[in-house]
Amino acid sequence: MTRTVSGARVLITGAASGMGRLYAERAVAEGARAVILWDRDAAALTRTAALLSEGATGSTTVFPYVVDIGDLGAIAQTAQRVRTEVGNPDIVINNAGIVRGAFFWEHDNGDDTRPTMQINALAPMYIAREFLPGMMSTNGRESRIVNIASAAGLLSNPRMSVYAASKAALIGWSDSLRLELVQQGFRRVKVTTVSPSYISTGMFDGARGPLLTPILTPEYVVDRVWRAMLAGTPQVTMPWTVGLSRVLRGILPLPVWDFVAGRVFGVYNTMDGFVGRR
Protein backbone atom coordinates (compact mmCIF):
# COMPACT_ATOMS: atom_id res chain seq x y z
CA MET A 1 0.00 0.00 0.00
CA THR A 2 1.22 3.51 -0.87
CA ARG A 3 0.86 5.67 2.23
CA THR A 4 1.33 9.05 0.60
CA VAL A 5 1.90 10.73 -2.76
CA SER A 6 5.06 12.40 -1.47
CA GLY A 7 7.61 12.59 -4.28
CA ALA A 8 5.12 11.51 -6.96
CA ARG A 9 3.92 13.29 -10.08
CA VAL A 10 0.12 13.65 -9.85
CA LEU A 11 -2.05 14.66 -12.82
CA ILE A 12 -5.67 15.73 -12.26
CA THR A 13 -8.23 16.64 -14.91
CA GLY A 14 -10.92 19.20 -14.19
CA ALA A 15 -8.50 20.56 -11.60
CA ALA A 16 -9.37 24.26 -11.59
CA SER A 17 -12.37 23.96 -9.29
CA GLY A 18 -14.63 21.65 -7.34
CA MET A 19 -13.43 18.17 -6.54
CA GLY A 20 -10.48 18.47 -8.91
CA ARG A 21 -9.08 21.30 -6.85
CA LEU A 22 -9.65 19.29 -3.66
CA TYR A 23 -7.58 16.42 -5.09
CA ALA A 24 -4.87 18.92 -6.01
CA GLU A 25 -4.88 20.36 -2.49
CA ARG A 26 -4.38 16.84 -1.11
CA ALA A 27 -1.44 16.26 -3.43
CA VAL A 28 0.19 19.53 -2.42
CA ALA A 29 -0.39 18.88 1.27
CA GLU A 30 1.31 15.46 1.01
CA GLY A 31 4.35 16.86 -0.76
CA ALA A 32 3.88 15.55 -4.27
CA ARG A 33 6.88 16.29 -6.46
CA ALA A 34 4.67 17.72 -9.20
CA VAL A 35 0.95 18.55 -9.24
CA ILE A 36 -0.18 18.72 -12.86
CA LEU A 37 -3.47 20.55 -13.40
CA TRP A 38 -5.54 20.09 -16.55
CA ASP A 39 -8.59 22.27 -17.15
CA ARG A 40 -10.21 24.14 -20.01
CA ASP A 41 -11.04 27.23 -17.88
CA ALA A 42 -7.87 29.29 -18.21
CA ALA A 43 -8.82 31.98 -15.69
CA ALA A 44 -9.90 29.53 -12.99
CA LEU A 45 -6.83 27.40 -13.67
CA THR A 46 -4.51 30.37 -13.19
CA ARG A 47 -6.16 31.28 -9.87
CA THR A 48 -6.05 27.70 -8.60
CA ALA A 49 -2.43 27.21 -9.62
CA ALA A 50 -1.44 30.43 -7.84
CA LEU A 51 -3.23 29.43 -4.62
CA LEU A 52 -1.74 25.94 -4.67
CA SER A 53 1.74 27.28 -5.33
CA GLU A 54 1.44 29.63 -2.36
CA GLY A 55 0.66 26.69 -0.08
CA ALA A 56 3.27 24.36 -1.53
CA THR A 57 6.57 23.55 0.11
CA GLY A 58 9.86 23.71 -1.75
CA SER A 59 9.52 20.08 -2.76
CA THR A 60 6.29 20.62 -4.75
CA THR A 61 5.85 22.38 -8.08
CA VAL A 62 2.46 23.11 -9.64
CA PHE A 63 2.15 22.83 -13.43
CA PRO A 64 -1.10 24.20 -15.00
CA TYR A 65 -2.11 23.23 -18.52
CA VAL A 66 -5.07 24.70 -20.35
CA VAL A 67 -6.63 21.82 -22.28
CA ASP A 68 -10.14 20.87 -23.34
CA ILE A 69 -10.18 17.09 -23.03
CA GLY A 70 -13.27 17.04 -25.23
CA ASP A 71 -10.79 17.79 -28.01
CA LEU A 72 -9.20 14.35 -28.24
CA GLY A 73 -6.35 15.63 -30.39
CA ALA A 74 -5.41 18.16 -27.72
CA ILE A 75 -4.90 15.32 -25.22
CA ALA A 76 -1.96 13.87 -27.16
CA GLN A 77 -0.39 17.29 -27.68
CA THR A 78 -0.67 18.26 -24.01
CA ALA A 79 0.47 14.83 -22.83
CA GLN A 80 3.64 15.24 -24.88
CA ARG A 81 4.26 18.61 -23.22
CA VAL A 82 3.80 17.03 -19.79
CA ARG A 83 6.25 14.23 -20.54
CA THR A 84 8.81 16.74 -21.80
CA GLU A 85 8.38 19.45 -19.17
CA VAL A 86 7.48 17.44 -16.06
CA GLY A 87 7.94 13.74 -16.73
CA ASN A 88 5.46 10.88 -16.92
CA PRO A 89 2.85 11.05 -14.15
CA ASP A 90 2.85 8.41 -11.44
CA ILE A 91 -0.80 9.08 -10.63
CA VAL A 92 -3.60 10.12 -13.01
CA ILE A 93 -7.00 11.12 -11.62
CA ASN A 94 -9.58 11.27 -14.41
CA ASN A 95 -11.95 13.61 -12.60
CA ALA A 96 -13.37 15.88 -15.32
CA GLY A 97 -16.91 15.22 -16.51
CA ILE A 98 -20.09 16.84 -17.78
CA VAL A 99 -23.78 16.00 -17.55
CA ARG A 100 -26.78 16.81 -19.72
CA GLY A 101 -30.03 15.96 -17.93
CA ALA A 102 -32.82 15.45 -20.44
CA PHE A 103 -34.84 12.76 -22.15
CA PHE A 104 -32.83 11.08 -24.90
CA TRP A 105 -34.92 12.55 -27.72
CA GLU A 106 -34.29 16.05 -26.35
CA HIS A 107 -30.51 15.72 -26.70
CA ASP A 108 -28.70 17.42 -29.55
CA ASN A 109 -26.09 15.07 -30.99
CA GLY A 110 -23.50 17.78 -31.50
CA ASP A 111 -24.01 19.80 -28.33
CA ASP A 112 -24.95 17.01 -25.92
CA THR A 113 -24.33 13.41 -26.97
CA ARG A 114 -20.94 13.75 -28.63
CA PRO A 115 -19.23 15.92 -25.97
CA THR A 116 -20.68 13.82 -23.14
CA MET A 117 -19.23 10.64 -24.62
CA GLN A 118 -15.94 12.30 -25.51
CA ILE A 119 -15.30 13.92 -22.13
CA ASN A 120 -16.75 11.25 -19.84
CA ALA A 121 -15.77 8.07 -21.66
CA LEU A 122 -13.21 8.57 -24.43
CA ALA A 123 -11.00 11.21 -22.80
CA PRO A 124 -10.05 9.04 -19.79
CA MET A 125 -9.10 6.25 -22.21
CA TYR A 126 -7.00 8.59 -24.35
CA ILE A 127 -5.30 10.09 -21.29
CA ALA A 128 -4.53 6.70 -19.77
CA ARG A 129 -3.18 5.45 -23.11
CA GLU A 130 -0.76 8.39 -23.23
CA PHE A 131 0.74 7.80 -19.79
CA LEU A 132 0.22 4.08 -19.14
CA PRO A 133 3.33 2.88 -21.04
CA GLY A 134 5.50 5.07 -18.81
CA MET A 135 3.81 3.69 -15.71
CA MET A 136 4.27 0.11 -16.88
CA SER A 137 7.97 0.58 -17.64
CA THR A 138 8.87 2.08 -14.25
CA ASN A 139 10.70 -0.48 -12.16
CA GLY A 140 9.74 -0.63 -8.49
CA ARG A 141 7.54 2.46 -8.40
CA GLU A 142 3.82 2.07 -7.80
CA SER A 143 1.45 3.98 -10.10
CA ARG A 144 -2.24 4.74 -9.95
CA ILE A 145 -5.07 5.50 -12.38
CA VAL A 146 -8.29 6.72 -10.79
CA ASN A 147 -11.42 6.95 -12.95
CA ILE A 148 -14.35 8.89 -11.52
CA ALA A 149 -17.47 7.24 -12.92
CA SER A 150 -20.98 7.36 -11.42
CA ALA A 151 -23.69 5.19 -9.95
CA ALA A 152 -25.60 6.18 -13.10
CA GLY A 153 -23.29 3.83 -14.99
CA LEU A 154 -24.52 0.93 -12.83
CA LEU A 155 -28.25 1.66 -12.61
CA SER A 156 -30.56 3.04 -15.29
CA ASN A 157 -32.37 6.30 -14.62
CA PRO A 158 -34.68 8.52 -16.71
CA ARG A 159 -33.26 11.82 -17.96
CA MET A 160 -29.74 10.38 -17.76
CA SER A 161 -29.52 8.10 -20.79
CA VAL A 162 -26.48 9.67 -22.47
CA TYR A 163 -24.72 10.40 -19.18
CA ALA A 164 -25.41 6.85 -17.99
CA ALA A 165 -24.07 5.47 -21.26
CA SER A 166 -20.84 7.44 -20.90
CA LYS A 167 -20.30 6.30 -17.31
CA ALA A 168 -21.19 2.68 -18.09
CA ALA A 169 -18.55 2.76 -20.82
CA LEU A 170 -16.04 4.25 -18.40
CA ILE A 171 -16.75 1.58 -15.78
CA GLY A 172 -16.45 -1.27 -18.26
CA TRP A 173 -13.17 0.00 -19.67
CA SER A 174 -11.68 0.94 -16.30
CA ASP A 175 -12.22 -2.40 -14.60
CA SER A 176 -11.17 -4.32 -17.71
CA LEU A 177 -7.93 -2.32 -17.73
CA ARG A 178 -7.40 -3.28 -14.08
CA LEU A 179 -7.79 -6.96 -14.95
CA GLU A 180 -5.47 -6.73 -17.95
CA LEU A 181 -2.71 -5.18 -15.83
CA VAL A 182 -3.07 -7.87 -13.17
CA GLN A 183 -3.19 -10.69 -15.73
CA GLN A 184 -0.08 -9.48 -17.51
CA GLY A 185 1.89 -9.02 -14.30
CA PHE A 186 1.87 -5.21 -14.03
CA ARG A 187 0.68 -5.32 -10.43
CA ARG A 188 2.36 -2.07 -9.44
CA VAL A 189 -0.03 -0.13 -11.70
CA LYS A 190 -3.36 -0.14 -9.90
CA VAL A 191 -6.69 1.11 -11.26
CA THR A 192 -9.49 2.40 -9.05
CA THR A 193 -13.01 2.82 -10.48
CA VAL A 194 -15.25 5.16 -8.47
CA SER A 195 -19.06 5.12 -8.74
CA PRO A 196 -20.69 7.66 -6.42
CA SER A 197 -24.27 8.83 -6.28
CA TYR A 198 -25.12 12.54 -6.54
CA ILE A 199 -22.49 14.95 -5.19
CA SER A 200 -23.20 18.55 -4.17
CA THR A 201 -20.75 20.18 -6.58
CA GLY A 202 -23.37 22.16 -8.53
CA MET A 203 -23.14 19.72 -11.43
CA PHE A 204 -26.40 18.08 -10.32
CA ASP A 205 -28.24 21.09 -8.92
CA GLY A 206 -31.94 20.32 -8.67
CA ALA A 207 -31.51 16.56 -8.45
CA ARG A 208 -32.55 14.85 -5.23
CA GLY A 209 -31.22 11.72 -3.61
CA PRO A 210 -33.35 8.55 -3.54
CA LEU A 211 -34.57 7.02 -0.29
CA LEU A 212 -31.67 6.35 2.13
CA THR A 213 -29.24 7.93 -0.35
CA PRO A 214 -28.18 11.42 0.75
CA ILE A 215 -26.47 13.90 -1.53
CA LEU A 216 -22.75 13.40 -0.90
CA THR A 217 -20.39 16.24 -0.06
CA PRO A 218 -17.30 16.75 -2.25
CA GLU A 219 -15.04 16.60 0.81
CA TYR A 220 -16.40 13.19 1.83
CA VAL A 221 -16.04 11.76 -1.67
CA VAL A 222 -12.51 13.10 -2.14
CA ASP A 223 -11.42 11.63 1.20
CA ARG A 224 -12.86 8.20 0.31
CA VAL A 225 -11.34 8.26 -3.17
CA TRP A 226 -7.95 9.42 -1.94
CA ARG A 227 -7.68 6.63 0.64
CA ALA A 228 -8.85 4.07 -1.93
CA MET A 229 -6.32 5.35 -4.46
CA LEU A 230 -3.44 5.05 -2.00
CA ALA A 231 -4.52 1.53 -1.06
CA GLY A 232 -5.02 0.48 -4.69
CA THR A 233 -8.66 -0.45 -4.02
CA PRO A 234 -10.18 -1.69 -7.30
CA GLN A 235 -13.73 -0.34 -6.92
CA VAL A 236 -15.47 2.25 -4.76
CA THR A 237 -19.24 2.72 -4.71
CA MET A 238 -20.93 5.19 -2.39
CA PRO A 239 -23.09 5.43 -0.44
CA TRP A 240 -23.88 1.85 0.62
CA THR A 241 -27.33 1.97 -0.97
CA VAL A 242 -25.70 1.94 -4.42
CA GLY A 243 -24.33 -1.52 -3.70
CA LEU A 244 -27.68 -2.64 -2.30
CA SER A 245 -29.44 -1.42 -5.43
CA ARG A 246 -27.06 -3.40 -7.65
CA VAL A 247 -27.83 -6.57 -5.70
CA LEU A 248 -31.59 -6.02 -5.87
CA ARG A 249 -31.42 -5.20 -9.57
CA GLY A 250 -29.60 -8.47 -10.14
CA ILE A 251 -31.99 -10.76 -8.27
CA LEU A 252 -35.41 -9.19 -8.81
CA PRO A 253 -37.49 -9.62 -11.99
CA LEU A 254 -37.35 -6.40 -13.99
CA PRO A 255 -41.00 -5.33 -13.36
CA VAL A 256 -40.49 -5.85 -9.62
CA TRP A 257 -37.23 -3.93 -9.66
CA ASP A 258 -38.83 -1.07 -11.60
CA PHE A 259 -41.54 -0.88 -8.94
CA VAL A 260 -39.03 -0.93 -6.07
CA ALA A 261 -36.70 1.58 -7.71
CA GLY A 262 -39.46 3.88 -8.93
CA ARG A 263 -42.14 3.70 -6.24
CA VAL A 264 -40.24 2.68 -3.11
CA PHE A 265 -36.79 4.26 -3.41
CA GLY A 266 -37.82 7.05 -5.81
CA VAL A 267 -34.78 6.52 -8.03
CA TYR A 268 -36.63 7.17 -11.27
CA ASN A 269 -37.75 10.65 -10.22
CA THR A 270 -34.49 11.98 -8.84
CA MET A 271 -33.79 14.07 -11.96
CA ASP A 272 -37.26 15.62 -12.25
CA GLY A 273 -36.09 18.97 -10.86
CA PHE A 274 -32.61 18.89 -12.42
CA VAL A 275 -31.20 22.23 -13.56
CA GLY A 276 -27.46 21.54 -13.41
CA ARG A 277 -24.68 24.06 -13.07
CA ARG A 278 -25.85 27.41 -14.33
Automatic annotation (TrEMBL):
The keyword Lipid metabolism does not apply. Gene3D superfamilies: NAD(P)-binding Rossmann-like Domain (3.40.50.720). InterPro entries: NAD(P)-bd_dom_sf (IPR036291), Sc_DH/Rdtase_CS (IPR020904), SDR_fam (IPR002347). Keywords: Oxidoreductase. GO terms for molecular function: oxidoreductase activity, acting on the CH-OH group of donors, NAD or NADP as acceptor. The keyword Oxidoreductase applies. It holds the Pfam family adh_short. Belongs to the short-chain dehydrogenases/reductases (SDR) family. This is SDR family NAD(P)-dependent oxidoreductase. The lineage of its organism: Bacteria, Bacillati, Actinomycetota, Actinomycetes, Micrococcales.
